[in-house]
């Protein structure tokens, strides 16, 4: 029983104990999270959430875990792997990593990977193992195998070079072992010793599978150690190894060649494998006098030869084609250069020799003589031009044209221009290759020459291109030009010359080019002097004609005014008819002679003395404005005005600005005129044998004597005049006149030849009586 | 009916076997042992579930029990002394648990601070004689009563926190 109570006591004690044991503070997840959140927000604790959300870890713990993981992973671990294995967000890892790095100096963060020093050591060991196997290992290969960034890998490998990695490197790209290098050194030495001519290193490398990176170092070493006799030239990839024996042979060949030929062609050098022939030639031919051209260099001997022949040409006054003396491989520009140098060096011929068509040297004397052959041609051509009035047209133009020579060339200006353009294009296209390889020089020579020539043309025309453009504009407005000969003609003439027989065409055309301008200028001079002399001659004659004309006009005007005076006697129809006749005959003649004079004065020649109305009008229209107006007016007067109008206009015609003449009328002269007119009429009467004419003259005399005035009328007016005389002269005379008139009429109207001869006989008989009657006629006084 | 949580708690408390009261001299001891064992289990269960809410001890013969119980409301711990005697008719009659300091403050209380148990309690107890013991009375009687009455009393302002809430929590 007691034991039972003991047991109860024990149980009671147990109960108390059970009650007093602190209760397990079971917190729900929810609460827990709340509490932790609270704590974090109060900054009482610092924890890191795991990605599962079930755990918190402190940063210290995280760091420790990272370290652990790193060790487990063998010294290299990815941050993302860390994040997944530790179930922590990567951002926390990233935050923790710097601390890890700080705590362990050997650890590095490379491309989001934690890498320890020991890992690198291990890596280096592996690399070393591989290197020992292969002999050569490139960093790139290692990178590929280990997937590490180049820089860090390279730096860590290089730092272990010699310690863990038993090898060496020259450019930090490839690691290789000493054994490897040595092996290749011997291989290379063997290969290059066997080489007898230049080889491209790249082909060697390819053929013998040499490690490209090491090769050049080795070769350079070997050369500098004199274990290889030769030289390495060019950049890495295109480097060429030329063995000593070869370059020696080459130099000997070049020297021999130069000594033999007197020149060196760069192409030939190039064919020998010399990359820069010019500098090579310069070094080889040091000390000798050599002319370096674009495609070759020419030695003194050749130059001397050329010089001698040029001199000879100079002395004999002929020409020499340098091309024939130079090697055919030279380009035309080179030839030109040679020629200019030779001439430039030689002072005595410098001024008297001309380079034509690039390569031909012609002496001044030759050109002079060529020019001389043109002189007779010039004179004939000049005369022709003068006659045709071309020269006159040109010289009377006031516009000064200083360089007629240029104009002469404008005939073929256009094709020169286009060809120049072409040529420029070609120049641009072939610009670089121009000085380059010209293997088949002989074939292209012909065309080359032509270009060269054009270039020569350029040289004098290029610089004044713009002014010439202006000239073209001027010339186009100025249709007539003084052309002596076209270039083709000049060249043709030159070719036909005896002097230039057997010469190449280029020379002829070259000389043609050369002298064309001179010729044109000279021709202009010749024509000018010819023109001037002819002008002088004509000036005096002109003065003479002027005074002659004045005289003529004075006389004509005098008689016209007298005739006009005579018209006053008549009236009505007869008067107007007579006046019209007067205008048509005498006045028209007068005006015609004036117009012709003025026209010739102003350069329009007119052969015929008598002009139709239209022809006259045409001539008048060609005149200058002042005479033109006045003459037009007088022209109208002629066609339907009165005599008085005509006379009035005539005064202005003679006045200033048109004829510049002083026409005076004076009474004494009038009387003289009348008397002389009468005398001439009487004389005519004496000599005349034709009945109609005699009648006409007789009537004229009678009218003048009776009226004391001059009347100008044609045969048509004779019957009217006779009628007019009725009652004014003695009846006897009048009857005789009428009788005679009737007979004349009859003889003119009859068809019968017998009748006609009969009438003519009687007329001839009457003619004498009529003549006597009229000759002795005295004026019948009006009063009777 | 009692709520699910109570039911679950109740089912976790080991049932008793001996039907004996304090008067039954010999049989009371095993009964008391069973009581203790059941209480220990209950307390352990409570602690396990973070639901420790009382302290009990008895006199030497296990007839009179006293201790304290507490209720946490709105993060404040309200603690009350409890006491009760084992009735002579025990286990047929359920013990009447009293909270003297709340005497007169609530209607659901008999004179002397004995709590007025729900209508369900008595038939339930009656049905389970002698399987139910003190632990069951506590879980089925006092626990729900506190859960109902303390908030009510607090809202009526009849009880106040003793200013030593923190101290009480600290003594925990």
From TrEMBL, chain A:
Q: Which PANTHER family match?
A: E3 UFM1-PROTEIN LIGASE 1
**What is the name of this protein?**
E3 UFM1-protein ligase 1 homolog
- Provenance organism: Galendromus occidentalis (western predatory mite)
E3 UFM1-protein ligase 1-like domain residues are 546-664
Q: Provide the residue span(s) of the region labelled Disordered.
A: 393-477
Q: Coiled-coil intervals in this record?
A: none
What's this chain's function? E3 UFM1-protein ligase that mediates ufmylation of target proteins.
- Chain ranges of the E3 UFM1-protein ligase-like C-terminal domain: 670-774
Q: What are the record's GO terms for cellular component?
A: endoplasmic reticulum membrane
Q: Where do Basic and acidic residues bias regions lie?
A: 395-422
Q: Which family does it belong to?
A: Belongs to the UFL1 family.
Name the UniProt key words of this record, in alphabetical order. Ligase, Transferase, Ubl conjugation pathway
Q: Which GO terms describe its biological process?
A: protein K69-linked ufmylation; regulation of proteasomal ubiquitin-dependent protein catabolic process; response to endoplasmic reticulum stress
Segments forming domain E3 UFM1-protein ligase 1-like N-terminal = 7-280
Basic residues composition bias: which ranges? 445-454
UniProt keyword Ligase, yes or no: yes
Report a single Gene Ontology molecular function.
UFM1 ligase activity
From TrEMBL, chain B:
Give the annotated active site: 116 (glycyl thioester intermediate)
Gene3D superfamilies per the record? Answer: Ubiquitin Conjugating Enzyme
Which terms in the GO cellular component ontology are assigned?
Answer: cytoplasm
Note whether Cytoplasm occurs among the keywords.
Answer: no
Pfam families in UniProt: UFC1
Biological process terms in GO annotation: protein K69-linked ufmylation
Keyword line: Ubl conjugation pathway
Classification via CDD domains = UBCc_UFC1
Q: Which SUPFAM superfamilies does the record cross-reference, listed alphabetically?
A: UBC-like
Xref: InterPro entries: UBQ-conjugating_enzyme/RWD, Ufc1
What is a GO molecular function of this protein?
UFM1 conjugating enzyme activity
- Function text: E2-like enzyme which forms an intermediate with UFM1 via a thioester linkage.
In which family does this protein belong, per the annotation? Belongs to the ubiquitin-conjugating enzyme family. UFC1 subfamily.
Protein name, UniProt field: Ubiquitin-fold modifier-conjugating enzyme 1
Q: Which organism is it from?
A: Galendromus occidentalis (western predatory mite)
**What taxonomic lineage is listed for the species of origin?**
Eukaryota, Metazoa, Ecdysozoa, Arthropoda, Chelicerata
Q: Which gene encodes it?
A: LOC100903794
């Amino acid at each position: 029983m007691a034991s039972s109570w003991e047991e109860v006591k024990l149980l009671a004690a147990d109960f108390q104990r059970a009650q007093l044991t602190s209760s397990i503070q079971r917190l729900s997840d929810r609460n827990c999270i709340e509490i932790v959140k609270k704590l974090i927000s109060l900054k009482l604790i610092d924890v890191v959430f795991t990605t599962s959300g079930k755990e918190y870890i402190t940063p210290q713990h995280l760091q420790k875990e990272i370290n652990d993981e790193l060790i487990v992973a063998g010294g290299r671990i990815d941050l993302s792997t860390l994040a997944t294995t530790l179930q922590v967000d990567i951002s926390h890892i990233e935050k923790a990593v710097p601390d890890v790095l700080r705590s362990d100096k050997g650890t590095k963060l490379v491309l989001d990977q934690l890498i320890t020093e020991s890992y690198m050591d291990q890596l280096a060991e592996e690399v070393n193992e591989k290197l020992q196997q292969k002999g050569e290992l490139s960093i790139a290969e290692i990178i590929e195998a280990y997937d590490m960034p180049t820089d860090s890998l390279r730096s860590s490998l290089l730092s272990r070079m010699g310690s863990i990695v038993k090898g060496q490197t020259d450019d930090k790209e490839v690691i290789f072992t000493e054994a490897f290098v040595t092996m290749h050194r011997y291989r290379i030495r063997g290969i290059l010793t066997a080489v007898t001519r230049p080889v491209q290193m790249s082909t060697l490398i390819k053929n013998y599978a040499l490690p490209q990176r090491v090769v050049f170092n080795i070769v350079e070493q070997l050369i500098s150690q004199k274990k290889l006799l030769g030289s390495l030239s060019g950049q890495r990839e295109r480097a060429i190894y030329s063995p000593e024996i070869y370059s020696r042979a080459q130099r000997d060949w070049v020297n021999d060649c130069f000594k033999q030929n007197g020149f060196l062609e760069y192409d030939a050098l190039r064919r020998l494998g010399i990359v820069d022939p010019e500098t090579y030639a310069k070094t080889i031919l040091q000390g000798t006098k050599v002319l370096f051209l674009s495609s070759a260099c020419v030695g003194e001997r050749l130059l001397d030869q050329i010089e001698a022949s040029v001199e000879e040409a100079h002395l004999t006054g002929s020409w020499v084609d340098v091309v024939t003396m130079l090697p055919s491989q030279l380009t035309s520009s080179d030839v030109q250069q040679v020629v200019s140098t030779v001439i430039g060096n030689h002072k005595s011929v410098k001024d008297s020799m001309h380079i034509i068509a690039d390569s031909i040297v012609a002496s001044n004397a030759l050109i002079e003589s060529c020019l001389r052959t043109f002189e007779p041609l010039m004179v004939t051509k000049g005369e022709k031009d003068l006659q045709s009035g071309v020269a006159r047209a040109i010289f009377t133009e006031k516009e000064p044209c200083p360089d007629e020579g240029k104009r002469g060339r404008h005939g073929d200006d256009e094709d020169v221009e286009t060809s120049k353009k072409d040529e420029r294009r070609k120049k641009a296209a072939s610009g670089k290759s121009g000085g380059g390889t010209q293997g088949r020089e002989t074939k292209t020579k012909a065309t080359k020459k032509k270009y060269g020539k054009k270039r020569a043309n350029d040289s004098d025309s290029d610089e004044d291109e713009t002014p010439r453009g202006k000239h073209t504009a001027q010339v186009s407005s100025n249709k007539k030009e003084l052309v002596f000969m076209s270039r083709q003609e000049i060249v043709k003439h030159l070719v036909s010359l005896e002097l230039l027989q057997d010469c190449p065409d280029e020379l002829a055309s070259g000389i043609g080019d050369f002298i064309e301008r001179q010729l044109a200028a000279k021709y202009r001079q010749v024509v000018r002097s010819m023109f001037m002399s002819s002008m002088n001659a004509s000036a005096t004659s002109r003065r003479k004609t002027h005074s002659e004309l004045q005289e003529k006009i004075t006389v004509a005007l005098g008689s016209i005014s007298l005739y006009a005076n005579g018209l006053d006697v008549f009236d009505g129809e007869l008067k107007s008819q007579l006046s019209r006749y007067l205008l048509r005959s005498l006045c028209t003649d007068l005006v015609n002679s004036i117009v012709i004079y003025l026209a010739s004065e102003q350069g329009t020649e007119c052969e015929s003395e008598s002009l139709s109305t239209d022809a006259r009008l045409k001539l008048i229209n060609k005149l200058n404005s002042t005479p033109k107006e006045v003459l037009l007016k007088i022209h109208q007067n002629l066609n339907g005005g009165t005599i008085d109008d005509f006379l009035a206009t005539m005064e202005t015609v003679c006045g200033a600005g048109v004829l510049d003449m002083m026409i005076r009328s004076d009474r004494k002269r009038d009387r003289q005129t009348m008397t002389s007119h009468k005398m001439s009429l009487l004389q005519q009467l004496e000599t005349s044998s034709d009945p109609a004419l005699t009648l006409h003259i007789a009537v004229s005399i009678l009218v003048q004597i009776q009226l004391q005035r001059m009347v100008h009328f044609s045969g048509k007016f004779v019957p009217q005049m006779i009628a007019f005389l009725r009652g004014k002269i003695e009846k006897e005379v009048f009857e005789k006149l009428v009788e005679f008139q009737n007979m004349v009429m009859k003889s003119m109207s009859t068809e019968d030849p017998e009748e006609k001869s009969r009438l003519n006989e009687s007329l001839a008989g009457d003619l004498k009586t009529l003549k006597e009657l009229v000759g002795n006629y005295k004026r019948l006084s009006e009063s009777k | 009916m009692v709520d699910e949580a109570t039911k679950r708690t109740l089912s976790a408390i080991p049932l008793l076997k001996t039907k004996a009261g304090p008067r039954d001299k010999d049989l009371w001891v095993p009964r008391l042992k069973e009581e203790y064992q059941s209480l220990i289990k209950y307390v352990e269960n409570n602690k396990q579930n973070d639901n420790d809410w009382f302290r009990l001890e008895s006199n030497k013969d296990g007839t009179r029990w006293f201790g304290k119980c507490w209720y946490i409301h709105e993060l404040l711990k309200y603690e009350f002394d409890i006491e009760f005697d084992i009735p002579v008719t025990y286990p047929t009659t359920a013990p009447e648990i009293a909270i003297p300091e709340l005497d007169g403050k609530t209607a659901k209380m008999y004179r002397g601070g004995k709590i007025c148990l729900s209508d369900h309690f008595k038939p339930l107890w009656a049905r389970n004689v002698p399987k139910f013991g003190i632990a069951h009375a506590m879980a089925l009687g006092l626990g729900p009563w506190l859960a109902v009455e303390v908030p009510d009393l607090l809202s009526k302002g009849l009880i106040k926190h003793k200013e030593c809430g923190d101290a009480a929590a600290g003594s925990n």
